[in-house]
Amino acid sequence: MSKRRILAVLIAFVLTIAATAMWSASTDERDGDPDAIVLEDSGSDAGSADQPKKKGGNKVVKVLTAPFKAFGKLFGGGDDKNKIHRMTEKDAEKFASVGVTRIDDARTSGTRKETATGSAREHLEVGREYLIEGRYSEAISSLSLAVSLDPKLTEAHNLLGVAYDKKGFGDRAKESFERAVRIEEDADTLNNLGFSFYQNGNYRAAVDRLKRAAKLAPTDERILNNLGLAYCRLGKVDEAYKAFARATGPLTGNLNTAKMLERFGREDDAIRYYEAARQIDPVNTIALRRLADLYQRIGRAPESEAARAALALASTGTATGATGR
Fold this sequence. Notes:
- This protein has helices at residues 3-23, 34-41, 59-74, 89-96, 120-133, 136-149, 154-166, 170-183, 187-199, 203-216, 221-233, 237-248, 250-263, 267-280, 285-297, 301-316.
- By secondary structure, it is mainly α.
């Protein structure tokens, strides 16, 4: 096969990957709880507090460069030394005896070995920087030293829980959050503990902690959205809507409730909340698009066609007040 033909095949392959990446951009390189991601996609905060944002968050750039990164890796050009990995058995062995009192990082090649020099606050700040950089193993090392030097340093326990959670060590994350709450029951640590219970499927315990967090921070969007998620999982939809609406207002509250119900396969209930959102904003394209699909799915063709017609008007901006939402 000629070089020109090989090049043409490779170019076609890359373009195919790029086209696929374009429609899957909303879930590309997404880490975290799937329910929380649904809310984040609608612009709502959810999940653990003090969770660092990933650098380079331009989704369009990621989508366009992803196929070329994959292409490079096919020929050995990829470099995954900075890739975030889930915790392995070797990691577990390294931290299993650590708890929050001692750290031994000598087994990690290429990583600076932590020593007990400096103050607890200094190790806390180093650990925070590691979290921001996404270097979670190093963050665990520094933050473990911080809580060893000062067992009552609430923030270090809290951030240590975040680091454990990011490494996939859920039980240790919960233990760290519980220690933080026992020292000082503030809104952020209660939120993190509650969301940890949520991720582990203990929704009643999640609601309890998140309600306590909401009392301390009545307007905190992240806490209220997490509370709404927990209520959804318990089947308390009206309570979920109230929490979502308190967090982001009635329109987004209805949309978030509907999205979660749709995830759970409760299509009729999802339609009810999408219609409520439509009553607030008749040209909301999210509500109209989902209503068109859901009505079609349950065999209500006239309502589906009406929603599609309204969506077409809203999308072209001919409806009064259309904004292309």
